[in-house]
Amino acid sequence: MQEKSKALPLKETGPAPSQNAPQTPPLIEVHNLNVWYEDRHALIDVTFDLYHDEVLAFIGPSGCGKTTALKCLNRMLEEVPGTRITGRISMEGMDIFRADLDLPEYRQRFGWVAQGPNPFADTIYENVAYGARIHQIAKDGADMDAHVERCLRRAYLWNEVSAGLHAQQGPDLSGGQQQRLCIARALGTNPAVLLMDEPTGSIDPIAANKVEKLILDLGDTHAIVLVTHSMMEARRVADRVAMFYLGRLVEIGLTDQMFSDPRAAETRSFMRGAIG
Fold this sequence. Notes:
By secondary structure, this protein is an alpha/beta fold. It has 10 helices and 10 strands. Helix 3 (124-134) packs across helix 4 and helix 6 runs parallel beside helix 7. The two termini are 26 Å apart.
């Protein structure tokens, strides 16, 4: 697969997670984010920005805070008992922790794709239509039909499932098809950001290749944050890469720079397999 080549109006960053001023404003700004699970300090002073129409890959050893940081963005993490969060996250200048925030409306701006495909036990059509109906994005009938088709086409799935939209159940599809159905479902609420937690981690290489191509396509119209344990996947699809280690964001930069000339010792060690 051809590596990601989209140019971003961003300067490279050094070993610290601070960033030089870009030419375009960020979509999301995270500043001094700290998370505790009971007494365990899981994220420590994490700072980064997320920009419109970019793919940002989180890499690092297991248990280093990647998924924790991901779940903070849509405020999913606070559903975990015993969790404490400090710091600031803003989306288009709005404090996401403010008291008067409409949380369901805020979360609608995010689509979530988990590692294991988890389609609803319902028809292919209803898997995609459910969120759009709940959030009144499309009306049942021709409007919803067009919306479901559009989402399935964007997920590279329409040609494979169009004949069985109302007859075939989501869990009856192959693993790779199920994951693309979950992506179509995530697109169903018209999110601004897609959060993907190892979306190719439990599917076969051919199916993973299709999902990677899909990420490249969606990265032109959505901000995507991707957790991955595959360095080659990060190199192929990401515009920028953020390296986490022991709860800290030790380095963030443009993908080519991160793989050719990482600044942080932890990144260099992880790239060569010395830590992990």
